[in-house]
């Protein structure tokens, strides 16, 4: 849950344009877009009828969003963040920033789609365009997840800040591409779920519906895209500017790939000018050989070990509307931190 709050905070940071977020604030009603029921205040939006995409609400819709750790366990800052921390974003233009844009765009589409299906929004509901009997012989239930609405809302809500700058700038082109790649990660992993109906558990009638994948699956798909992201540069193509691979020997990227403009800085050492915190003081996994292991995460500097009593948030519950209430639990752990 805590990681979901951090991830949701990233979304709020992106929408507000601030590099530091301390607490989410509800949005104000200024202007309505009747096409999809969006109410905007500057670059921050909320849904009609007082359904506000505050950080807490988005976090509650993304409790399973433990996809964030694959990125946060790396040298990029974030491992020590909690929901009350000031939140530094990765340097703009890098592959880490590409991941943040993609995952937050996907997160908005996911949260709104789930809210539509659960009846929390008056302006949308289930996707009833898929109905009748399928070629495979099962009956469509008529209540599939309305991913089309979720994607449309994400495009309006998330992309507005980049489009307001002018979509021809290199950074805007990169961010818009990665926003769309995040939404594609949900669309390409949509799945069919079914339920059998009949006497004594038989499957005389099977009803099915299209459902969004678990957000963990979306996150891991984007993590793979992060690892294989393409470095690009802007180039004039006809009458418009486009992003093309910097190395002509690389194959062109697709709409589902992440792209970045600038190489990542050295995340081992602190560089506040670039917004890099370094890895000193970061917790690490003593037994892991992966990037979250002390050997790699601490960049060869070694690590400290201490027995500490850890206060943890536990038994967190979302209360409508809109706050998360948790208990405090104490646990004795062996903590390893980078020198």
UniProtKB/TrEMBL annotation:
Gene Ontology cellular component annotations, sorted alphabetically: extracellular space
Alphabetical list of InterPro entries matching this protein: Wnt, Wnt_C, Wnt_CS
One Pfam family it belongs to: wnt
Biological process (GO), any one: cell fate commitment
Subcellular location, record wording: Secreted, Extracellular space, Extracellular matrix
This protein's record includes keyword Metal-binding: no
Keyword Thylakoid: no
Function, as annotated: Ligand for members of the frizzled family of seven transmembrane receptors.
Family under the similarity heading: Belongs to the Wnt family.
Name of protein: Protein Wnt
Primary gene name: WNT4
